[in-house]
From TrEMBL:
PROSITE patterns: PROKAR_LIPOPROTEIN. This is Multidrug resistance protein MdtA. Residues 290-358 form the CusB-like beta-barrel domain. The keyword DNA repair does not apply. Residues 1-24 form the signal peptide. It comes from the Bacteria. Residues 369-435 form the YknX-like C-terminal permuted SH3-like domain. Residues 225-252 form a coiled coil. Gene3D superfamilies: 2.40.30.170, 2.40.420.20, 2.40.50.100, Helix hairpin bin.
Length: 451
């Protein structure tokens, strides 16, 4: 027994020495040597494949009218009348009966050309009469100018010219006689000078008569006619201006529509610089306008159908894409789209909040697609883990359409590359992995073996 105990002690004391004989001494005598075992995760993968996707995406927006017009005063004046074409009400208060037909008010339907507001036209009518009188005077002057060469006028001027010539001839004879008399001193020099002055005067009268006769024969000059025609045109323009001002005193509906605001009363003075007096909208069809992320550029086109659901409406309404803005808003990275919907029976109202369901398709050549569950988000950005060999590498991807559990990958992954699909959030970049078949693959393999 004592021998066995001693042998046991010796064995325990010798064990460290035996271990030391089989292992190299550590470089640092005070440190303990440790080699960690590398972690290898088992993952399932799916190969990215190139195929088109189609999906129905929802966007939110507002309903706009087909047309919206704010009618303002184009001339200054006082509101004389607002046609009483609104609702009729009859009420009795304290035994007294009141009946009145309301003027134009919001919610009222109007036809193109209906009078909405009537200004006082008295001043405009006076101005128009004055302009017409001015035009008549200018037109008469032009007609008289053009009739200058009438025969009776030519004959009258010819007679005046002949009379002036006869007086000139007589003056010449008197001057010759005066010269002989002044030489014999029978008359004074002053009498001779007076005769000479009569000759000069008679000559001037003859020259004037001949000029008038020549002008009458030739008719008015082109310049004179042009000046008078310009005066006629100016007067006609003034008549047109006054007529337009008179017409502008009556504010009419520009098209068939619905009045949505009336901000004026009888007796108010309005001016072109004042606020809109009446607002009219065309609600035959409405426009759903909304923003679409730029990642959907090319995913739909004009005349594509869409479903529009308005707030408070039970059923969607079919619409058509009628406008796609070519500008992407740099602040929101979206572009505006408009969908038109029929509203002939006034089911919806402008300004309502709507949800638009728009079918989208992969634009151009189909991009690779991967299962939606393969995405891992890092700081809000989508990533996938691509298995190369036995190592998983994290990649930033740009996603597009999503449909039936698949997501379009527009960049970051090529078709055929294997991506991790089972809880990629638990995988780290560069981790060693072992690819294992999925349950569906195992079941498919078992089924094949059974056959």
């Amino acid at each position: 027994m004592r021998y066995l105990r001693s042998l046991g002690v010796l064995s325990i004391l010798a064990l460290p020495a035996l271990v030391g004989c089989n292992q190299a001494a550590p470089a640092n005598p005070g440190a303990t040597a440790y080699t960690p075992r590398q972690t290898r995760a088992e993952v399932q993968v799916v190969a990215a494949e190139r195929r088109p996707l189609s999906a129905v995406e929802e966007f939110t927006g507002d309903l706009l009218p087909r047309r919206r017009t704010r009618i303002v005063a184009e001339v200054e004046g006082v509101v004389k009348q607002i046609p009483q074409t609104g609702a009729q009400f009859d009420i009795t208060i304290d035994g007294r009966r009141y009946s009145e037909k309301l003027g134009v008010s919001y919610g009222q339907k109007v036809a193109a050309g209906d009078v909405l507001v009537q200004l006082d036209t008295s001043d405009f009518e006076v101005a128009l009469r004055m302009a017409k009188a001015k035009l008549a005077k200018a037109s008469a002057d032009l007609a008289e100018l053009k009739s200058w060469d009438r025969p009776e006028e030519v004959r009258r001027l010819s007679a005046l010219r002949d009379e002036a010539a006869a007086r000139l001839s007589q003056a010449h004879r008197d001057l010759l006689r005066m010269r002989s008399l002044v030489a014999s001193r029978a008359i004074t020099e002053a009498e001779h000078d007076e005769a000479a002055m009569k000759v000069a005067t008679a000559q001037a009268v003859v020259d004037s008569a001949e000029a008038s006769l020549a002008a009458s024969t030739a008719g008015p000059t082109a310049e004179a006619v042009a000046v008078q025609e310009a005066l006629v045109s100016q007067a006609a323009a003034e008549v047109e201006e006054k007529q337009r001002q008179l017409e502008k005193a009556t504010l009419r509906a520009p098209y068939d529509g619905v009045v949505t605001a009336v901000d004026v009363e009888v007796g108010e003075r309005v001016a072109p610089s004042s606020d809109p007096l009446v607002e009219v909208m065309d609600l035959k069809y409405l426009i759903a306008e909304f923003g679409v992320p730029e990642s959907y550029v090319g995913a739909f086109a004009l005349r594509n159908e869409a479903q529009v659901v308005a707030a408070g409406a039970a059923q969607p309404v079919t619409g058509v894409v009628v406008a796609i803005n070519e500008l992407v808003d740099p602040s929101t990275r979206t572009f505006r789209v408009r969908v038109a919907i029929d509203n002939e029976i006034a089911r919806l109202k402008a300004g309502q909040f709507v949800t638009v369901r728009l079918p989208l398709k992969t634009p151009g050549e189909a991009s690779p697609v991967v299962p939606s569950r393969s995405l891992a988000f890092v700081e809000g950005e989508p990533h996938v883990f691509v298995v190369e060999g036995d190592v998983a590498h994290r990649r930033r991807v740009e996603t597009g359409l999503t449909s039936d559990g698949w997501v379009e990958v527009r960049s970051g992954v090529q078709a055929g590359e294997r991506v991790v699909v089972d809880d990629p959030a638990l995988i780290s970049d560069g981790m060693a992995v072992t690819v294992v078949p999925s349950a569906a693959e195992v079941a498919a393999g078992d089924s094949t073996l059974q056959r």
